Amino acid sequence: MAGIKKEESKTEEKVTEVKQPRVKKNSTAIDSRCPGCGSKLTFDPKKGKWTCKYCNSEYTIEELETKYKSAASKEKNEHKHLEEDEGNYFEYNCPDCGAIIVADEQTSATFCVYCGNTAILKNKLAGKFHPTYIIPFKTDVEEAKKAFKNISKGRMFVPKDFNNEENIEKIRGIYIPFWLYNIMYTGDIVARGDDVTHWTVGRTHYTKTDTYEMQRKANMTFEKVPVDGSSRFDNDLMNSIEPFDYEGLVDYNHAYLSGFLAEKYDIDEQDSYDDAQKRVVNSGEKEILATCHHGVPRIIHNEHNNIVRDFYYVLLPVYMVNVKYMDKYYTFAMNGQTGKFVGNIPLNKAKVVIVSIITFLISFGLIELVIYLAYIWGGNK
Length: 381
Known about the structure:
By secondary structure, this protein is of the alpha+beta class. It has helices spanning about 60-70, 140-150, 165-170, 235-240, 270-290, 350-380, and strands spanning about 5-10, 40-45, 50, 60, 80-85, 90-95, 100-105, 105-110, 120, 135, 170-200, 205-230, 250, 260-265, 300-325, 330-335, 340-345. The strands form three sheets. Strands 1, 8, 9, 10, 11, 12, 13, 14, 15, 16 and 17 form an eleven-stranded mixed sheet that branches. The protein is flat, with a radius of gyration of 29 Å.
């Protein structure tokens, strides 16, 4: 090796993860009650409309806004603070049957166990907890149930009762709180890579290694970098169901929560920003190293700077279910917009042991048979 060859370049790139969403500004907060009969409305992800199962009415968000402007429906959810050993809880009165609904601090929408009505705890999503945008559900719960049923197909070691009807019925659609960041990234990287050449002359083999030192500078803009804003949900699981199509973002309205559960954030935008920075740096380094074409480049010097342009608090749709097996919980999640399904699958250890023993016995028997036949044939020669 004669020395290190230096290669330097300066690039300016714009890496856009998603396009800027086009959203329509809504000025009216619509409710989850049918303007015709007063019964509860449910958001239909397939139709993109709110439906009433009692009078069979269907409404778009524009139609509901018009109706509620002329006759605003105001529901009062009175609550009182309860002190419990496990934490803070709140009580709400169901607007349909009057039953008391108990929820913790993070819950923003839940169900009444008596009449099944969706209880949207609007005061929990007020002030700083009021989301800027929401992506409504595009897939329905039947699709989530079908995906969960299919997860065990072709997997012989999945426990027999794992995807029974009891577990399937636990699947719920939940709006998960997320922070979205628009970040400007500046990277200055020095990388080193080797080009290795081999050749042979006669019986002599030669190897030549050319080492290159490459410097890259780049400016990039990352838009809508998502970070889960709730400590309840595993970050790896939430990352696994990405990406979401942020073209589907619309202005937040309470009515979208009808028929679903919802959470509010308990990790604020400052604490969540650390995770956003890590994602940006990793993506930025990957983009820069892709321009280094000598061997497998390795970073020997790295400087970067991140500047937040702006950020948003949003709710994103996820179907989830927790299944308990052998004193351990297994969580499954499906992207409520794209249908992407992820989760860990338990193994029936008893079945694994039995199959292993049977396989061993069969293999051992075949080996013994081969040895015996070889002995017999050898003795007859």
